Amino acid sequence: MSKAKGSVIVVGFNVRPLAYSLHKAGLEVYAVDFFGDLDLYPYVKDSIIVTDELDDTYENLKENFKYYLAKFCIELLKRHPNIDFLLIGSGLDDAFDERRMILEYILQKDSRIISLNNNLETIKRARDIEQIYSYLKSNGFSVPHTIPLNKTEVYGHLQFPLILKKKSSSGGANVYKVDNISNLNMKIQQIEDSDILNEWLLQEYIEGIPVSCTIISNGRDTEIISINRQIIGLKLLNPPKPFMYCGNVVPAYLTQADRKRILKISNNLADTLKLRGINGFDFVIKDHVPYLMEINPRIPGSIRASEESLGLNLLNLHIKSFTLSKWEKVKNVLKNSEMNTFTTKLIVFAPDTIPISKIKIINKMKYVHDKSPPVEPIQKNHPVCTILYKDKNFAESFFKALKITDDIFRLVG
Fold this sequence. Notes:
By secondary structure, this protein is of the alpha+beta class. The chain contains 14 helices and 17 strands.
């Protein structure tokens, strides 16, 4: 397929994978990113890095990072007013006010920039998991029993263990397993001290296989890209929280029947929501029944692994999917592509503070991406890097990727 043309501004918590693929697709890339990994810079013409711009740390900025991403997106648009496309990545899924900030600036300036994103109303509908569950249940699909946390009258009838999660949770950051009523009461007290109860949900605990489905749509039609095994809370990677997103293996090793069930739900939701571009759905499979956990109405974190396994530039397809006349080309490219390899993505978290000298060694290792700048130590529990490794089968890909993480942990002690 022909390369894309023009320029794009990409904004998100970690845009390095998107910037890489956009650059390879032939675009001139401008980025707003939170951390500014070393391997972002070769693929962008200009960038604003939140931590650099504000000369502060993640810990001090994390409460307001969504606002800063939107603010600096506008700053970069002012600096480069003739950019052709806008792509919003991870970190702004539920940031409706911040998204509106960006869109209102574009409208105010009468900019010709084309949004490569779902519209705001579509994103709101996709992120309203209670309404999504109601829709799925009415159409005969299985969903985890879910109630608002502030429904105190049902506490005496709860079955443990269960999941306590924030409605706007992402990447497993605000998800907790609760084993009994005293544990629940303690969590509620902690939430009341810093948050609002009606922003939280209680959910049936579904123990099973975590998977995700990546699709591409044009608002009318949908094609499958990949079904992926999700790696959640893998202790070997030292995640700071038990439900933290730690990576993927693409494709997932599933039965054909399981694949069909996942595709049926994903296609149904994509068509109902009129999603556009590349989007992701998270599931847990229990007894061969897929339970939807979350919709990510944007390009998911597994995208580079999908690209490696398919041998395709999926960002190129994402851009083309926003032009109806190019949809048949998108479909044909996917239908003529096969997954001949398995690709594992692993996110490595620091077991302790990592000094600058060892960061430099890690950054030189093969298969390492999202390289931390060696300007200050990496703090305990913070992400160190991402491993991306492909091989001929699921086991070879996964365990050889784990071997690289083991080398990193041996290095840092």
